[in-house]
Amino acid sequence: MVHYSERGLHGQTVQEIARRILTGELAPGDTIDVAALGDELDLSLTALREALKVLAAKGLVASRQKRGTFVRPRADWSLLDPDVIRWQFANRDDETFLENLAEVRGIIEPQAARLAARRRTADDLAALDGALRDMAEADGDIARAVQADLDFHRALLTATHNELLQRMEVVIEVGLAERDRLVHGVRRHDDPVPSHRAVLDAVHAAAPDDAERAMRDLLAKAARDLDALDREH
Predict the structure, then answer these.
(1) What is the pLDDT of residues 71-114, one digit of tens each?
(2) Which of 113, 138, 186, 205 has CB atoms 3.0–4.6 Å from 215's, for a disulfide?
(3) Which residues partner with 32 through β-bridges?
(4) Residue 82 half-sphere exposure, CB side, CA atoms within 13 Å?
(5) From CA 167, how far away is CA 208, in angstroms rounded?
(6) What is the 3-class SS of 164-203, one letter each residue?
(7) Degrees (nearest 5) of the Cα angle 33, 39, 40?
(8) pTM: predicted TM-score of the whole model, two decimal places
(9) Is there a contact between 188 and 232 (Cβ–Cβ < 8 Å)?
(10) Phi-psi region for residue 96, left (φ > 0), alpha (ψ -120 to 50) or beta?
(11) 40-44, 99-103, 195-199, 219-223: which has the highest mean pLDDT?
């Protein structure tokens, strides 16, 4: 996966073109008039081409002789790339993406909790305990609360000791971080500690069925939080 610096003119340019693509302003199949775009954004062709290289590496655009630069079909986009996930949240028009994320979490995390209950080590439990402690001590600090939530779910995936499941942190973490910022930043939310503690207690007790059930309850609560957010807007 290709990463880039979000800072500076280069990062702003990458994000602006990505925004246009993800919102449909530049639709799949559209040809990008590079010279005109450079004039609009007051950029040199060199700077613009550097930005397009980042987007090409993420599957959003491509260049061909005689055709020029164009937006690739959505099926070609690197939807698991952390930047692409983050850009989709920044342009919140795509509610389907939030629904897709919820479905992916519903498939992965309950089973991850089952495996964690069977395979967790002392180090895994210490990491989960620490994340829950940080969550309880966040006390209204949104950044700390979000980080603690990420740490908890990352530690849970690690506790499965399944390398492929651990790689799913790319989707879980970036999507969860942006979702948390939406929910925590707009409305008072229910205390997240009890639902996470229920998962952790089951993992501590080496009780796979209880761990899976607790995780499903946690995800149901997350869905209710998003529904409440939608109703407020």
Answers:
(1) 999 999 998 888 888 888 766 555 777 788 889 999 999 999 99
(2) 113
(3) 69
(4) 15
(5) 21
(6) HHHHCHHHHHHHHHHHHHHHHHHCCCCCCHHHHHHHHHHH
(7) 85
(8) 0.76
(9) no
(10) alpha
(11) 195-199
